[in-house]
Amino acid sequence: MELKKFLSIHILCVLIFVGFIYYITIFIFLDGWLSLQSPAGSLHALIFTLVASLCVFSFFICVLKDPGGVPSSYLPDVEDHEASDQESKRSGLLKKQCDKCSAYKPPRAHHCRVCRRCILRMDHHCAWINNCVGHRNYKAFATLVFYATIASIYSSIILISSALHKDWDFVEVTPIKLFYIATGVVIISLSLTLGTLLGWHIYLTIHNMTTIEYYEGKRAAWLASKSGLNYRHLYDVGAYKNISLVLGPNMLKWLCPTAVSHIKDGLSFPTSREYS
């Protein structure tokens, strides 16, 4: 049952932490700054609640959505020019077979030792969602990181505004002052961490890469440079096309984690050779 995925200490920690950040942002920092009864306070509370809700919704999708496994009926295509005889075809098949689960792997699929299966277009296994990030839930993961970054930055702004609004005695050390400092360090650090992660996945999306492919590409580029050749990621088909393949062709639906009608079977992908 999919709900069993929530029986994880990491997911429990995430939900508790999100609830804590939401509570102190709305009922302590925002209320202390503008008052929740004021029009401005109510508006900020509404906007922050909306962003936080979208963040939690994306998180649930990431946890529950299967990242995409390799169909048991999948067989790789070995009818190419290089594999002209039976021996070379057999060798080609062996190269496309996973040595851990003894199944054939489509392009961009990798074996996850935690999930114990091959995942289509695998990016990484994330303990915080108790799931792999792969072909079918990568968009949900990207929107989760986006909304979490916006929410944490928004929370930081409300915290700082609330702190500046107060008339502090900078000599006296009080529990409320320590609380503001401690939570400020946590939330601002979270904003920087999530912002860095968001920037990383924006880079990957623009270049149509996974995290695994990025590190594989670094080695391939190094080997190519030693031979005097230029390396280009095989699935990089141009920035806009790359983004559309991940987030969808409709820009209005890019930030909707459930708008995934553009996602194909994950067994084949357009390549730069087709667009050259």
TrEMBL record:
Q: Which GO terms describe its molecular function?
A: protein-cysteine S-palmitoyltransferase activity
Q: Which UniProt keywords apply?
A: Acyltransferase, Membrane, Transferase, Transmembrane, Transmembrane helix
A GO cellular-component term linked to this record: endoplasmic reticulum
Question: Locate the Palmitoyltransferase DHHC domain: which residues?
Answer: 95-216
Q: Which domain of life is it from?
A: Eukaryota
Fetch the Pfam families from UniProt. DHHC (PF01529)
Q: Where are the transmembrane segments?
A: 7-30, 42-64, 144-164, 176-200
Q: What is catalyzed by this enzyme?
A: L-cysteinyl-[protein] + hexadecanoyl-CoA = S-hexadecanoyl-L-cysteinyl-[protein] + CoA
| A biological-process GO annotation | protein targeting to membrane
* Record's bilayer topology term: Multi-pass membrane protein
Assigned EC number: 2.3.1.225
Please name the InterPro entries in this protein's record.
Palmitoyltrfase_DHHC, PFA4/ZDH16/20/ERF2-like
Q: Where in the cell is it found?
A: Endomembrane system
User: What does the domain comment read?
Assistant: The DHHC domain is required for palmitoyltransferase activity.
Q: Which PANTHER family match?
A: PALMITOYLTRANSFERASE ZDHHC16 (PTHR12246)
Q: Which family does it belong to?
A: Belongs to the DHHC palmitoyltransferase family.
User: In its UniProt entry, what is this protein called?
Assistant: S-acyltransferase
Gene of this entry? LOC107825996
